[in-house]
Amino acid sequence: MIRFHRVSKSYPNGHVALKDVSFTINRGEFVFLTGHSGAGKSTILKVLFGEQKPTAGDVRVSNFVLGDMKPDDIPRLRRKLGIVFQDFRLLEDRTASENVAFALEVTGARPDTIPARVMRVLTQVGLAAKARAYPRELSGGEQQRVAIARALVNDPPILLADEPTGNLDARATRGVFQLLREINATGTIVVMATHDLELVKSAGYRQLEMRGGEVTYDSGVDDTLATELP
Amino acid sequence: MNLLTREALLSFRRAPLLSLLSVTAIAFSLFAVSLFLLVAFNLRETLRGIEERVEVVAYVTRGAQSEAITAVSQDIQAFPEVQVVNVVTQEEALVRAKTELVEFRDAYRDLQVNPLPASLEIRMKEGFRDAKSVAAVAERVKGFDLVDDVRFGREWVERLDQLRNVTGIVGLSIGAAFAAIAIVIIGVTVRLTILQRAREIAIMRVVGATNWFIRGPFLLEGAIKGLLGGVTAVLLAGAAWRLFRNSLGTAMQGLVFLDGVTILGIVLFGLALGLGASLVSVGRHLRDV
Asked: Which residue in the set A71, A76, A89 is minimally distant from B202, CB to CB?
């Protein structure tokens, strides 16, 4: 579960990135964050994975209360999250499977369990056959699938995706989005920031629209905010 | 191989030139420190040779009995500052004068009476070869009735004192300067390595690696580079020492090399430099991003 309660974020230079933002996302939900560049979508995601601290308000992610969080606890939070970026963020000198395995290795997974877990998740994203390919040998859509596999390999209950289809053509976009739907169907919360309003409309999932750091529209307000927020 | 070692070694393979640069930077900085230590070592050795010659000569009153002279020499020998007292009889003084002062050999041959007094040559213990201690001993020796005159080359001993102080201060400052340069260079090269791997660090953070986990390979890498740099520096210093000694002929055969403790010190200092510079650079990077 994710809960933002009256969250604001401003910078020392006076720029206000989030203004009194409140929403709740329940288990199993798929939520689109929409809005122009600079509307606050990425800030919400950054606050969610502990990259930025809110200046006011209360943020809860699973069992973590982010405001009180010590820097040492941030890695524990991130192990409960899968994070996907527009630019994939793969290591160019490692194969697809090594990129996925990296996430397990650096979080201290038992080495003998790693190969099987990597293959399982690469199979899930449809890239088992390209496990030994380097990022440069893969298409954009495939690279994003590797990034998603890496995000999923720790079985996170929440997947955050910042413009995951921003660099992809229409066909690859459909493929990646379908993959995210399948992941959501297993009960994982998916929060996806996107510019692609066509996609948002056609999918029919909940939409949080942002403008100037505020949530200006929440398609799920009736059945979530009203009941969840005090 | 565990992840820590693998990642640390991987950086050598992925950026061989940068790694070579770091090791070379450490090696040359420490080489400069080692060369300086070599000079300081040999200077100290030479000073010690000169210092050993610091002595107080007490001339004994003419006609004194040899038993009385022996008794005085034993008293002086008991001074805490004194290493050894050598009694030079009148006859010995003459023999010495004849061999050492060749120009006067003829004059000495024709002598009917030995004009040279007996003397006590008093050598000081190590640590008491400074002007103050020597003057104090000379003063006390002068107090013996049997002692006619005392000489110790005050000016010369004072010069030696100054030389000792100057070499100590210059040594410390130059050594510190080279060490500081080494630290800066290592810091810069480690920072370059980190910037080169910034993407990897960012990914490690995003997937939930702890800061200590991220630091690990960099610290190991820095320590290995420091160690390699330290060993290279000692090897270079050894080569320079050998070259210098061989090319300058017999006059330089007496040159000493660094002792084991100092060599170990240089290598460990290299390791500490590598480790310290990595710790600071990674710490700064993790704080900044």
From this structure: A89
Answer whether A49 touches B (CB < 8 Å): yes
> What distance in Å separates the CA atoms of residue B209 and residue B282, rounded to the nearest whole number?
14
- Tell me what pLDDT residue A152 has: 92
pLDDT (tens digit, 9 = 90+) per residue, A22-48? 999 999 999 999 999 889 999 999 999
What was the pLDDT predicted at B114?
A: 81
| Range from A62-76, B85-99, B195-209, B242-256 carrying the lowest mean pLDDT | B242-256
**Mean pLDDT over residues B8-36, rounded?**
83
In chain B, which residue's Cα lies nearest the Cα of A50? Answer: B206
CA–CA distance, B194 with B188 (Å, rounded to integer) = 10
Total beta-carbon pairs less than 8 A apart between chain A and chain B: 47
Can you name the residues that pair with A32 across neighbouring β-strands?
A192, A207
From B14, B202, B207, residue closest to A106, measured CB to CB: B207
> 10 Å Cβ neighbour count for A53?
13
From the centroid of its chain, how far is CA B71?
Answer: 40
**In this structure, what DSSP letter does residue A47 have?**
H
The model's confidence at residue B1, banded by pLDDT at 50, 70 and 90, is low
What does the pLDDT look like over B127-166, one tens digit per residue? 888 888 888 888 888 888 888 888 887 777 788 778 878 8
Q: Side chain identity at A19, as an amino acid letter?
A: K
Name the closest residue on chain B to residue A90, using Cα atoms.
B203
> Between residues A157 and B115, which one has the greater pLDDT?
A157
Answer yes or no: is pLDDT of A227 > 50: no
Nearest to B58 by CA among B140, B150, B138: B150
Looking at the complex, does the CB of residue A56 fall below 8 Å from at least one CB of chain B? Answer: no
Reading the block at residue B15, the tokens are: 């950026």
Nearest residue of chain B to residue A100 (CA atoms):
B207
**B204/B211 Cα distance (integer angstroms):** 9
At residue A116, the 3 state secondary structure works out as helix
What is the model's pLDDT at position B252? 65
Nearest to A194 by CA among A185, A184, A202, A183: A202
Rounded Cα gap, residues A59 and A24, in angstroms = 10
Q: What number is the average pLDDT over the span A57-77?
A: 89
DSSP letter at B116 equals: P
Interhelix angle B154-196/B131-142, rounded to 10 degrees, is 160
Rounding to the nearest 10 degrees, give the CA dihedral for residues A131, B199, B11, A111: -50
The region that residue B264 occupies, defined by phi over 0 for left and psi between -120 and 50 for alpha, beta otherwise, is alpha
Tokens of A41: 């979508």
Q: List residues bridging with B150 in a β-sheet.
A: B58
User: Whole-angstrom Cα distance, residue A46 to residue A14?
Assistant: 19
Q: What is the pLDDT of residue A135?
A: 96
Q: CA B87 to CA B125: how far, in whole Å?
A: 17
